[in-house]
Amino acid sequence: MLIVMFVIAVLIVLFVPNLMKQTGKISSDGDIALEKVIEAQSEMYFLENNKRPETTQQLVDGKYISKEQKKKADELSIEVK
């Protein structure tokens, strides 16, 4: 029984740090994806309105992005280009 617990403990020690690294990478990839969404929706806004949006709020008002996306973009200081 003690050997089984030891093996489980060793496996946990080996796998938990790797899982934590993957969580950070997923978060980073999500931030990059959001930036690309903001850029793409900004272009869509431009094509439909013949002017560039000045703020992410204009994208929300035009239903190009969600309020949650705007909130996250503001947290990450992603600006409309």
From TrEMBL:
Its main location: membrane. NCBIfam families: pilin_ComGC. This is Competence protein ComG. It comes from the Bacteria. It is a single-pass membrane protein. GO terms for biological process: establishment of competence for transformation. One of its GO terms (cellular component) is plasma membrane. It comes from Vagococcus hydrophili. Keywords: Cell membrane, Membrane, Methylation, Transmembrane, Transmembrane helix. InterPro entries: ComGC (IPR016940), Pilin-like (IPR045584). It is found in: Cell membrane. The keyword DNA-binding does not apply.
